[in-house]
Amino acid sequence: MEIKPQLLGMEPYQPGKPIEEVKEELGLTVVHKLASNENPYGASPKVKEKVQEVLLHPEIYPDGYAAAIRNKVAEHVGVREEQLIFGAGSDEVILMLCRALLSNETNTVMATPTFSQYKHNALIEGAEIREVPLKEGKHDLEAMLEKIDEKTKIVWVCNPNNPTGTYTTTKEFESFLERVPKDVLVVSDEAYLEYVTATDYPNTIPYLDEYPNLMILRTFSKAYGLAALRIGYGIGNASFIRSLDPVRPPFNTTSIAHQAAIAALEDQAFIQACKEKNRQVLDDIMAFCEQLGLSYLPTETNFILIETGIDGDVLFDDLLKKGFIVRSGKALGFPHAIRVTAGTKEQNDAFLQAFHDCLEKRKTLSQG
Ligand SMILES: *Cc1c(COP(=O)(O)O)cnc(C)c1O
């Protein structure tokens, strides 16, 4: 067998460590996962009620067109149903875009560090990857524009950016969109939209009228708390979505996910409450960092990247032993940082205590 050559050096996605695995390995009874930006408050209680009915009929294929959730999302977002494409998480929409637009004769432009799946899927398609380092923690849109040439097919703007939490402003995004050639797809990945509080964060929906080369990605995995059910979507130009659709696997999103997402969208009070609690917890983390003189990047998400001056993997291990799974910054492009998801207040108070102890221990070790 001969696998595509570009696959040879590649690794599968490295997910956050699962809770059960850590419990078993370290003999811990309580483990908090603050690694994958999941919603610590779960999903709306209304979701659980709604999926019960679907669970009674697992033998029936889901609606491949996802009509019910399509109708709901179209109404929620304020677009036409034909402007939507659903995926098993927005991850699958990223995959579909790469599959449809990229080949070894093309290139794609993105920031670095940013969300890993743009590069991952583009590499599989054999495309050339053009990475532009973040500037002061943010997308350097000017430098990204310069990287675009006649072979560029997709340019990715992760907004807010994972793993930094930083965002591109309305003004910056508008000016970028105006100058990107019209035959290059601009992807605005808005996985953390529901958490954003900045007033100059762009509402990208109205741009769709003027820019058929804009694609917006959103997901039910983060604030909506449906990560296990795998559902996200893309919003774009109706005719572009139609040409993209053959790439989508049949029945790629499940009936359970459809019903759960409908119920989740109907409970906006839950989202609002999560957003407020998230901000308070982030405020606590930032106050902690300031007290200890640790630098961090301002975040519009439910996670924060903290520079500790300590090897990210070392601090990751130290925290793991205390029952906290975070992300080492090492694999994320920040070797001396950790990325932490904002948990509940209780989880976070315990985390900050453990974090404090770990920092003290490393300080003592380095002085000894
Ligand atoms: C989590 C995440 C996604 C995708 O999540 P899905 O579970 O596949 O919907 C996409 N983009 C960014 C930036 C993310 O952080």
TrEMBL record:
Pfam families associated with the record: Aminotran_1_2
Cofactor(s) essential for the protein: pyridoxal 5'-phosphate
UniProt xrefs under InterPro entries: Aminotrans_II_pyridoxalP_BS, Aminotransferase_I/II_large, HisP_aminotrans, HistidinolP_aminotransfase, PyrdxlP-dep_Trfase, PyrdxlP-dep_Trfase_major, PyrdxlP-dep_Trfase_small
MF terms (GO), sorted A to Z: histidinol-phosphate transaminase activity
Entry-linked PROSITE patterns: AA_TRANSFER_CLASS_2
Modified-residue entries (N6-(pyridoxal phosphate)lysine), positions: 222
Keyword annotations from UniProtKB, A to Z: Amino-acid biosynthesis, Aminotransferase, Histidine biosynthesis, Pyridoxal phosphate, Transferase
Pathway: Amino-acid biosynthesis; L-histidine biosynthesis; L-histidine from 5-phospho-alpha-D-ribose 1-diphosphate: step 7/9
Domain Aminotransferase class I/classII large: 32-355
Catalytic reactions on record: L-histidinol phosphate + 2-oxoglutarate = 3-(imidazol-4-yl)-2-oxopropyl phosphate + L-glutamate
Entry's EC annotation: 2.6.1.9
Alphabetical list of PANTHER family matching this protein: HISTIDINOL-PHOSPHATE AMINOTRANSFERASE, HISTIDINOL-PHOSPHATE AMINOTRANSFERASE 2
UniProt record similarity statement: Belongs to the class-II pyridoxal-phosphate-dependent aminotransferase family. Histidinol-phosphate aminotransferase subfamily.
Subunit structure: Homodimer.
Official protein name in the record: Histidinol-phosphate aminotransferase
